[in-house]
Amino acid sequence: MQREGLVEVKEIEKGVDALVSVQMLHPAVRSHTAVKPTVSAPVLEYQPPVVRELYCITAHVLELFLPLKKGTPLPANEVRRTVRDYVKSKQLDAGRGSVKIDATLAKATGIKEQALTKWDELMAGLLSHMTASTELVFADGTSRLIKTRIDPIQMQVFTRSGNKKVTLVSNLEAFGFVLPTLAQECQRAVAASCGVTRSAGASHDQLMLQGDQTHFMAKLLIEKYGLPKKYLDGADKALNKKK
Questions:
Q1: Domains of the chain listed by start with CATH number
Q2: pLDDT tens-digit series, residues 95-123
Q3: Element (H, E) at 109
Q4: Which Gene Ontology BP terms does the record give (predicted)?
Q5: Contact 122, 109 (CB under 8 A)
Q6: What DSSP element (H or E) covers 30?
Q7: What is the rounded CA–CA span in Å between residue 165 and residue 156?
């Protein structure tokens, strides 16, 4: 760099050179652009998906919901509102909480035409002829529609050789959990072996923890990650269990 005129170096004593000046007006210095350090994106805390129980329109009930198409998912309150509007428009309200079944309602509910039916029976028949579905809306805005009711997370404790207990946690991936990452967190928290496995007959990977860790898992999923209790089998029992 001394040859290019960028810096000046002098020998201050025998065998010792020192940098005595830098030419800040040198073109190479003036044209230099500092590179900004990259900042890693913050790691977002896991948020469980919003779970909505829906009913998809089938061929049996399609006429009742026109102009909507077959397969359209609807929440139960919207299904109920549509039926009430239909009953009112066709003057099928028989009073005292009863509805007179016409041909369209008979096809949609499986109830005999001309029968007088209570509202609860009418809705039960109608919903049984629709496809019970589940919509998962994740924190990043993406959503997934499953044409069935989603199974809750299950925790099971097994005793293995040497009277050692292990806890298997199933269906975590359905709620957006990344099992290897969760396994690392659990292992640090309980100071016990934890990994990803798949037991015989299981269709998806499971989390396996050494010992009875149902109390720990219930607190982690419900209290830290905000998972609603209804989506964790045995949640109350596990939370009330002594450590």
A1: 2-31 (no CATH), 50-133 (1.10.245.10), 153-240 (3.30.780.10)
A2: 999 999 999 999 999 999 999 999 999 99
A3: helix 103-109
A4: formation of translation preinitiation complex
A5: yes
A6: helix 27-30
A7: 10
Burial (Cβ within 10 Å: 0-12, 13-18, ≥19) of residue 226:
exposed
Residue at 161: amino acid letter = S
When the pLDDT of each residue in the chain is averaged and rounded to a whole number, the result is 87
Beta strands in the chain (DSSP E): 7-13, 16-22, 50-56, 73-75, 93-95, 98-100, 116-118, 131-137, 143-146, 154-160, 164-170, 194-197, 206-210
Residue 175's φ and ψ, nearest 5 degrees, are: -100, 15
Q: Is pTM beyond 0.85 here?
A: no
- Provide the 8-state DSSP code for 103: H
φ, ψ dihedrals at 204, nearest 5°: -135, 165
- Token duo for residue 37: 């350090």
